[in-house]
Amino acid sequence: MNKRILLYGLALCLCSAQHVLAQIDFTQYHTPASLLSDLSNLATTHAALSQMFIIGTSIEGRVIQGIKISTNPGVDDPAKGDVVFVGVHHAREWLAAEMPLRLAEYLLTNYATDPGLQACMNNLQIWIIPVLNPDGYAYTADPNGYRYWRKNRRNNGDGTFGVDLNRNYGYQWGLNSGSSPNTNDDTYRGTAPFSEPETAAFRDFIAARHNPRAMLTYHTYSELFLRPWAYTTGDPPGEQTLAYVAQDSIAKIAAVHGETYGENIWYTSSGEATDYFWSQYRMAAFTPEMRPTTGGVGGFSPPASEIIPNNEENLPAALALIKDSGCRALWIKDYPGDSGTEPSAVWTGSGWSHAFWVSPDISTVPLTLVGGSTVTLNVVVHNDANATKNGAVVRAYYTDPRISLEFPNPVAVLIGQQTVNLPAGDTPVSFSWTVPTGTNIWGEHHWCVGAVVLHPDDRPLTTQIQLSSNIGGRNFETVDAVAGDRLLMVAITNHFDVPVEYEALINREKLPRGWEVLAPPLPPNPRPNRKALLLGVKSRVLEPGETVLQPIHLHVPETARPGTKATIEVNGVLKPLVPGKRVAMGNGFVFDVRVPNCKPCKIYPRKRATQ
Amino acid sequence: MNNRTSARNQLLRSGLVFLICLSTLLSLEGTSSGQSSQDYPQPNDKGRSFYRIDVEDSIEAGLIEQQLKVKPALIRSRSFYYYGNEEINQLLRRHGYEPVRVNREDVLTRLVMVIRKKDTEEDLVKAGATVVLREREYWVVRATLTQLQLLERLGFLVEELGRREPRHRQVRIAISRLEQVAEVGGLRVDIYDTTKSEKGYVILGGAFDDSIDELKAAGFEVEILADPPGVIR
């Protein structure tokens, strides 16, 4: 009897060991049920590292679920970056479900033995949703359904079914050039942005993330690696950054089986996912259109023998995005105490948590700049990896400093670009910079320098200084900036392509007793903005591309002692007038003010390290 | 009760449930054909009228929905349609909008089958309908509810599609320049892939007949390919 129990126990152990070690079978396409079962088994087998999660339910009531991979999966950790992989917006694109599942399996089975992967994953929460469109996916697998169905399964109430989920997002929704208003069409965009529970759930899921960094939304087919914008052939802000990541990903994919993905799909798609997330969060979002290259409608059902090679070649691109999001090695300080954490600053409601426009890693020799002179611009790049990073590219730009700066930005001028080998530790990279002879938009010799470091193993994923450790910024003045007695000026430009609410807040903490600084409200908008009215916004709204000057009045008491110094910090914030989570972007200025040794005294404000 | 009796009762109960489900399905099937336009399913909007306001873009539409809790029934171009009442309209007026009452039967459309008899497609088009698919025994047309009523008055035999979902045709479109891919996409073609050919490029995609008509009118060479498995016309 005892022997029987022992044997039974041994058999159980063997079974469970087999369960732990079993690999997911990718030699055949999963069914909707087997996909969920394998995903759920992964979560059960790797319970310390993963957990199933639900983002919502589909129009037919199916649960939209995924697997969260993190060292503390039960806790939503605001200190960690969030990276998202999502598949099957389009029902018939079955490879787009297989790839996220394979990624989940790879991460969970390799974590324990791959210190490099651990280092990156430990800083992240990885969210993998293999199927965003479970109804459509089920319909394509149903013998009574249709294998080549693309949309979700909404009953449109007019004799037709389905909305194209990847035309239903809220940015640039409704353009006829990239979607259809006709319910029967495969690119039907829905009655309104986010009319579908699947897209609304995904929008809300991302909005609830503390630190969204990057996203891949898997599709098939054509072998392309697409980036924003999808709605237009024009470039988005940050095109250089997005192009760098896309081209690097394409190289990583090609290195596996020689499949060379393209970059251009040649048609536009409005209401598309990556456009929305780049626009709303500056979250690096890309669309891999995977195998095959061609095949007509049959291209959506390649033989099952394509699953493994497709997974194999797309895995390095996914892992690179994880590495970039969670494992920085190369970085530039945003402020003196910066340790490379992302984000380096957040809007607290009363100012930025750190002045991120005062990088000590960016400096000039000589320190004082004269218009037209050529100086040496030094950028210190930190390499925290133990190995040399060969072939790193460091780019330096200058621009007229305004609130709403990002690098590269549409008006930034490239000072220079250098390809360098960066050993572990700190390396200065020098550029020759001829200081502009003209003035900036408010007549001052005052310029902001931004530096960006890029490497195939360490890529910036956004253009916002405070959101990327690969970017740093600092301002320089060429002469004493005498703006006139008790009057300082700050420029604000809206580089977004939607209207923004502008607000300036003064940090008065460092002001001597009796001093006062006022930022009078800017004149109201020439015509009321209905979006502002809807949001209850009372402050000045800037239309896309608009620049305004903000006067800052400085009141110094008569009794101010000569030699007294003060620091005035102006925090500027721009909040887009959009529905959902309104992410604050912006910048700041720091003015050094000194009371000269004279009677009567004039106040000479000097800008320093500002932007 | 022994186990065998219990199993038999369970089987009987299951069979009964199956028969009830089957009869329900059959009765639903019966009601889905041969409806008149007065019986077409309508949104759940009893007691509320249909209105339109003008908006700048979809972002503004999203803000209206989020801030004022006015759900759009349809957004088309710069028009935001909704089911409302005076209270909702007052709220919108306070935010600078000018609600206009509209006849939803002139705005909302349906896709239906029109059985081919002696009528011509020209008659359909004259009545304002758009022919989405031309099948051997019927047309699939898109029309507003007002237009459907007119078609019926003109003697057309109009039927609901029921479970017969319209499937687009597989098409091969020849283009000379890659820039024309966007133009083809703009004509509502579901583009699968674009490949180089001897004369330029070839697009493979899916399209309905109204889209194919527009492609041809725009000068594109369109070849219709065989349906994939699972398409019943």
Tally the structural domains of chain B: 3
CA(first)-CA(last) distance of chain B = 53 Å
Helix and strand content put the structural class of chain A at alpha+beta
**Percent helix range of chain B:** 25-40%
Tell me the series of helices and strands of chain B, N- to C-terminal.
HEHEEHEHEHEEHEEHEEHE
CATH topology of the largest domain in chain B: Alpha-Beta Plaits
- Give the fraction of residues assigned to helices of chain A: 10-25%
Q: How widely separated are the two ends of chain A?
A: 81 Å
Oligomer: heterodimer
Rg of chain B, Cα atoms, Å: 24 Å
Structural Rg of chain A: 27 Å
Class of secondary structure makeup of chain B: alpha+beta
Question: What does this entry look like structurally?
Answer:
The complex is a heterodimer of chains A (611) and B (233). By secondary structure, chain A is an alpha+beta fold. Chain A has 10 helices and 23 strands. Chain A has a 7-stranded mixed beta sheet with strand order 1-2-4-3-5-7-6, with helices on both faces. A 5-stranded antiparallel beta sheet of chain A has the order 19-17-21-22-23, with no helix packed on it. In chain A, strands 8, 9, 10 and 13 form a 4-stranded antiparallel beta sheet that branches. Chain B has 233 residues and is of the alpha+beta class. Chain B has 3 domains: 3-16 and 39-104, 2-Layer Sandwich (Alpha-Beta Plaits); 108-159, YebC, transcriptional regulation domain (Alpha-Beta Plaits); 169-224, Alpha-Beta Plaits (2-Layer Sandwich). Chain B contains 8 helices and 12 strands. In chain B, the strands form 3 sheets. In chain B, strands 2-3-1-4 form a 4-stranded antiparallel beta sheet. In chain B, strands 6-7-5-8 form a 4-stranded antiparallel beta sheet. Chain B has a 4-stranded antiparallel beta sheet with strand order 10-11-9-12. The longest helix of chain B has 29 residues, at 3-31. The interface between A and B is large, with 60 and 63 residues.
